[in-house]
Design goal:
Strand content: 15-25%
Radius of gyration: 24 Å
Helix content: 25-40%
Strand order of the largest sheet: 8-9-11-10-14-18-15-16
Number of strands: 20
Largest sheet: 8 strands, mixed
Oligomer: single chain
Shape: elongated
Distance between the termini: 37 Å
């Protein structure tokens, strides 16, 4: 993990490999941003014109390196684009700072230390820059090189460096933050805790399924829970069978790696509210008997991203000492075809007692979630939020960077949406049209696991709603699009597992602890 410090040093005097400054896109060319005044002065006030000569515009995410001025201990200045200059009397929003810091950190891979002189006007800005830098510096190299280091599969983090590759930026020094200011220190400590857990979630998502089956995931979660004072309970295949968890068992029965249901419980003596987070944890999804075609199964190790997000959020809540009880449920299974696998046409009796006709074994996530949601409902939490890479239909609707939010309470859906946007996770509220329920009518069982093809993401949400306990507020986050980035890295988002929804869940827990939600 990249180290982070708050520094009172001047940019010119910091012993580092690079100094990072911000540059915005002005009406007449690049504009040097707040925080870089001393650097600009060392260029005789001509930093903006030098950058323009080098082709920089200040566009978001743009990175330009140039030799540092005479007298600087760092040899390089890196200018990162912030996008448009803010309107008069307004500052850069938090996610602009996160994205800029992330882009700079990525560009500095292979570097030991960099000073970040980005615009920091308050503690929130310091936290945003810290978060962006720590997320942007992430890399997953555990399986590269000589093959002797596969720490990620054991929950110990990534390898330091791939053979022949570049190690992540080793240290970030925030210039302009206030090391003795309690608010600044708290913001950076929070950013460090959340990003460490989010990056652990990324490690899990990126770990190959031959090293991360349900049992291995449960072991990683259990070890982290014990380290941070979180209670853990793991139901193995025998306990699941005894308890009647037909949905989880029905999905996992075709695999040699049996399923697990993991309960993580963080409690605070000062808590007045209780949140339950439920994560889909399909460690590999072949589609089962309804086999996915080639071209659709190569990245299906990421189908446990929802469980990874829930795991990271619960541990983050514990590390932050939030005054709210948070329970995480990880519904873990591997969906494989075999002679023992569930077939299309089979009927499963769920933990709730409802029967489900399985029309498509590749609609498996809703089956494991349904059992976990029913179980979570028994604790009577104030709200349940499930997170899942659930449907390709949601990707078709919202693209690869935005997740959909459905809920049984419009006000709660709005709150979750606002929180997601606040922390920089693009999302969109989606409806649950009642007429789509009829498409899941079954002549054989209480309900089918498939309905109308059009609006498939909404159908999945309606199916899950059937298993939420009476009177419990519930939201469903379909993160199928943003959970795994197959395109080039951008901002603080890497290629591969992203840790989508972790920051939304953590902020929801913080807001609930503060009494801001109901």
């Amino acid at each position: 993990m990249t180290a982070l410090t708050l520094s009172t040093a001047a940019a010119s005097g910091l012993r580092a490999d690079a100094i990072v400054v911000g540059v915005a896109k002005g009406a007449k060319g690049p504009v040097v941003a707040l925080g870089a005044e001393s650097v600009d002065k060392a260029y005789d006030g001509k930093l903006a014109s030098v950058l323009e000569t080098l082709g920089a515009s200040g566009g978001e995410g743009e990175v330009t390196k140039l030799p540092a001025p005479s007298g600087f201990k760092a040899p390089v200045v890196l200018a990162v684009g912030l996008g448009a200059v803010p309107e008069k009397d307004s500052a850069y929003d938090a996610d602009t700072l996160r994205r800029a810091a992330g882009a700079a950190a990525r560009a500095l891979a292979g570097t030991k230390k960099a000073g970040f002189a980005l615009p920091i006007t308050d503690a929130a800005d310091a936290g945003a820059v810290a978060e962006g830098a720590l997320l942007g510096a992430y890399s997953f190299d555990a399986y590269k090189g000589n093959g002797k280091d596969t720490k990620a599969a054991k929950g110990k983090g990534k390898a330091e460096k791939a053979e022949g590759g570049k190690a992540p930026l080793a240290e970030v020094a925030l210039l302009g933050a206030k090391p003795r200011d309690k608010a600044h220190k708290a913001a950076v400590e929070r950013a460090t805790a959340v990003t460490e857990e989010l990056n652990r979630a990324r490690d899990l998502i990126n770990t190959p399924p031959n090293d991360l089956n349900p049992e291995a995931f449960a072991a990683v979660a259990g070890a982290a829970a014990k380290e941070h004072g979180v209670k853990v309970q793991v139901l193995d295949e025998k306990a699941l069978a005894k308890g009647g968890f037909g949905g989880i068992l029905g999905v996992g029965v075709g695999s040699d790696a049996p399923p697990r249901l993991v309960k993580l419980s963080y409690t605070s003596s000062k808590a007045k509210k209780h949140l339950a987070f439920v994560g889909k944890g399909i460690t590999y999804d072949s589609g089962g008997i309804s086999l996915k075609p080639a071209g659709h199964n190569e990245t299906m190790k990421c189908d446990m991203s929802g469980a990874a997000a829930v795991f990271a959020a619960v541990i983050s809540a514990a590390r932050l000492g939030l005054e709210v009880n948070v329970t995480g449920w990880l519904a873990l299974a591997e969906n494989m075809p075999s002679g023992s696998a569930t077939r299309p046409g089979d009927v499963l009796r769920m933990y709730s007692g409802k029967t489900v006709e399985v029309l498509n074994t590749d609609a498996e996530g809703r089956l494991v979630l349904a059992d976990a949601i029913t179980k979570a409902s028994e604790d009577k939490p104030d709200a349940i939020v499930d997170v899942a890479t659930l449907t390709g239909a949601m990707m078709m609707a919202l693209g690869g960077r935005t997740f959909g939010i459905m809920a049984n309470d419009d006000a709660f859906r709005t709150s979750v949406h606002e929180i997601a946007e606040e922390v920089g996770e693009p999302s969109w509220p989606m409806p649950l049209p009642e007429h789509l329920l009829k498409g899941m009518d079954s002549p054989t069982a209480d309900i089918a696991n498939m309905g109308e093809r059009m609006g498939g993401g909404l159908v999945a949400g309606l199916f899950l709603r059937e298993f939420v306990g009476e009177g419990i507020t519930w939201a469903h986050l379909d993160i199928a699009g943003p959970a795994y980035n197959e395109a080039a890295p951008f901002g603080y988002t890497p290629k591969g597992g992203t840790g989508s929804a972790v920051r939304t869940l953590v902020r929801l827990a913080e807001r609930t602890a503060a009494g801001d939600l109901g």
